Each structure stands twice: as structure tokens, then as C-alpha cells.
Amino acid sequence: MKNDKYASHNDESLLIGLRGGDLAAFNILYDKYWSVLLDESYKRLEDLASCEEIVQDIFIDLWKHGSKRDINNVEAYLFTCMKYKVFETYKKNRRTTALIEENSSYYQRQDNTAGDLYDEKDLKSLIEQWVANLPQKRKEIFKMRYLDGLTTKEISDITETSQNTVQNHLGVSIHKLKKLIIQHFLTLLLILFNCK
């Protein structure tokens, strides 16, 4: 149940509450701006997973550091953060795409022995091992979302955990999984180049 003192959902009063570390104020801001920021970032990137991670990072940062930032207009602040993170993601994606395109002809020339070292089965096995080593709660939430296809609301109801907490667990998991896959990809590159 939402706190009565924020019943009007006035951004100024919510910002004051946030500065005082009031979780109720943060949750209302989260509910108010989450989907708007996600929609706006998706218009620019058209990659739902990246956009969800961007918005999640924005709200994690707002909760951790919002009291120390000089925020006068919370809506403008959130949209500025979103645009900056979208731009950074776009730049990173362009670099990754360029790297793949630059080396695609090289990959095609490699013999099957080198390619077989890290095929799709290896990547699947790596991810399964990574999931198995997650903390119990995070593992449970990750499997329900990405293996069972449940929504964050359904997971929240089943685990009796707030939807914000579920989304935080998923945000952290996806961030770490992406790092793992990037490391895997870089390892593959090193192996391929050393096999020449």
C-alpha cells in the first residue's frame, strides 16, 4: 500500500522523500517513469533487453545517489540519464558490430577444428553452469523469467517479493551474463587468432 503523504504523486514532494531515503517515494517514481523511459529508449535502440538494463541502471543509480545529486526536475533528470545511456549503448554496439564485420571473413576461413572448440553447445553449457552458481533467490527468479517465460508481476506474486526487487535481481543477472558472454567471445577471438 502506497504512503498517503505521496497520494498526489507530486514530483517535488517525491524528490524530497527520495533525498530523505524514503523507499515509498522512490517506488512511486519508479512506477511512474519506468515504462515511459523504457518506451523512449526502445524507440532509439529497438533492443528490449538493452533498454530494460538501461532503465534498471538509471533507477539503481537514482536510489543510491539521488540524495547527493542536485536534481531540480526529476523527470528531466531521468530523461537526460536515459538519453546519455542510450547514446553510450549505441556507441558500444557500433564498435561491436564493426569488430564482427571486420573479422567475419577471417572466421569463415578457419578450419572446423578451431571453430568446434567454442560452438553453440559450449556456450549453452557455459550459461547453464553460470546459472547453477547464482545465489538461490536470483537463480530462481532468472529461471522463472527466462526459462518459464513468466512476467515480473507473476514472479513477484509467486515468490512474495516486490516487483522492484524481482526487476533488480534480473537487472543484475543480465548485466553479469552479458559480461560473461563478452569474455567468452574474446576468448574465442584469441583462440582463433592463435590458431592461424
TrEMBL record:
Residues 30-96 form the RNA polymerase sigma-70 region domain. InterPro entries: RNA_pol_sigma-70-like, RNA_pol_sigma-70_dom, RNA_pol_sigma70_r2, RNA_pol_sigma70_r4_t2, RNA_pol_sigma_r2, RNA_pol_sigma_r3/r4-like, WH-like_DNA-bd_sf. SUPFAM superfamilies: Sigma2 domain of RNA polymerase sigma factors (SSF88946), Sigma3 and sigma4 domains of RNA polymerase sigma factors (SSF88659). It holds the Pfam family Sigma70_r2. Residues 127-170 form the RNA polymerase sigma factor 70 region 4 type domain. The keyword Transcription applies. The keyword Transcription regulation applies. Keywords: Sigma factor, Transcription, Transcription regulation. Belongs to the sigma-70 factor family. ECF subfamily. This is RNA polymerase sigma factor (Sigma-70 family). It comes from Sphingobacterium zeae. The lineage of its organism: Bacteria, Pseudomonadati, Bacteroidota, Sphingobacteriia, Sphingobacteriales.
